[in-house]
Amino acid sequence: MRRLLNCLFVVVFSLPFAAYAQQPPALELPDDADIRIIVDISGSMKTNDPDNLRQPAVRLLARMLPEGASAGVWTFGQYVNMLVPHGEVTDGWREQAVERSGQINSVALRTNLGEALSVASNRYLSGSDELDNTDFILLTDGKVDVADDGNADENAKERARILGPLLDQLRNRGATIHTVALSEEADLELLETLSTETGGSHSLAPSAEALTRAFLKALNTAVPQQQIPIEGDGFTVDEGVKEFTALIFRADEEPAADRELALVSPDGAQASAGSAPEGMRWVQETEYDLITVTDPAAGQWTIEGELGEGSRVTVVSDLRMVVSPVPPTFTADEPIALRVAFFEEDQKIDNADFLGVIDVQLTLTSADGRSGTKSLSGEEPPADGVYTDDIANLPDEGEYELAVVADGQTFSRRFTAATRFVLPEGEEADVVAEPVETVPEPEPEPEPAPVEPEPEAEPEIADEPIADNGPIDISQAEEPAAEPATENEESGGLPMWVIGLAGGLGVLAVAGAVFLVMRRKKPEAETETEAEQEQEEEPPVIAPEEQAEEEPESEDEIPVAEEIPEPEPEPEAEVPEDDIPVADATVDEPEPEESAPESEPEREPEPEPAGEPEPETEEPVPEDEDDEFGLEDFDLSEFDDLPDTDDDKGLLDDDDKSDDGKK
Question: What does pTM read for this prediction?
Fold first, then answer.
């Protein structure tokens, strides 16, 4: 018993520490990023990127990098060249990167990818071995090619070096590699391994036109930036915004030559690429327009023209919405632990009056356009200022865009990230099958009703109706339906260690109760053994002889009678009243009723309070209550032979039968 209690105490006191260790790290403002862009300029790019759209893609990254970050650009073929020196991102650095992007070409003979990674990760660049805050964006369209004579063995050896010692070194130093393949002929397995093993993202740009968006996706994963949502044909700028940058992609069906775009300020002034006023920078590229406004007027800004997919407005403001990092991939076993908080400069906001007016919405959109939205704002704002949600499962495997939008009435903020839901090998997304199985069940009962549920369930699996329930608000798709409740509890500010401590105290209470029951039963067992010893020493009363004659009539009680005959030759005059009160009662009652000995135990609990002294009836009742407590506090569902009883009668019957055995 002591060993059991010791184990329970160890478990109880270790629960809070285990729960605390499983808590996600606290939300903090991210450190300044270090972005290193590596671009393939091998001869195969003439075919895969004939219009050299790598140049505007690199210029976009240079212009979108935030102030205070560090960055550099390298090109590689057979050799590695530093196109833009690594340094702090300033207006001068951006101008240099934009100017030198014109030197990106397709003249190199080889694809020395491993050397490019080695040079870009050189220790002298940051003065440290650590690369914890460093993200590499790697673009290539081919395979490892370092042999002058096309020796396949030499190329295979170099590939093995990249996936072996070089990858281990970069991973151990904390680097994150985001890979972009500009052709299906690229070594997709190599690129996916580099990104997966380092926690980066992987994209396949099916065409040069998709390269800009693929680059932007990698940049947004590496350096998430503050955004304000575009609603309809405009967006609202709050007074705290110091600068905003509007990235407007060209619509797919719109010819670049015929593109017309204008931006209207809150006071009605219209601006365009050819008539940008003071304080506005307007850059027009083939695939996009980039508009930067310093010290913008607060209010509604309107965009006149077609907005392509991926258009966004980023802002520079002291009021920031910080979202925990979103992994490039996740599974049901490794879900996304989403955390959202607001910061004013470098201080997290937990003021209930401020947070009480903010509506935080989470939306997931699949690659085929399906989307679902749920609210992270409860009835009351979180006490610690952190909104929480765990995304554990989705209806289908594939790419998803995650968006968090906060509407604070006087301001709004938006965050986006790309992620991929992956199923373990050999498993299928049987989450989708669950709604299909649950819908047909109500159909057979009311025939008119099934017609209505069917159209509701089918779109949930395939089309827009999933937006009603949403891939995020998918309690029907996730096995743990109680997760949303726990999320609300977390958002209410209840720490994990408190939950663990409460559970531990519950276990301790159960263990204590069990211990008390065992201790109460132990003296009772001792008294029974003492009674048996006294029965052996003293001669019994003549009455047990009659009981011995009655018991053989019941075949089930024969083995019990074999134990009772031992006290027959011993007299039992005064001891039975104190030690075995139940036995006395059963001995006295069978004298008038010899024909029904089996019914006596069932009536014992009822007549004893009236005909017997109170001490005798009080002693058996606690024994039954103890037994009831012990049974109810343990899961006995594994034992099929135990009856499922909710009342005390069944338990009393079992105890009475055991009392008959004692007779």
Answer: 0.64
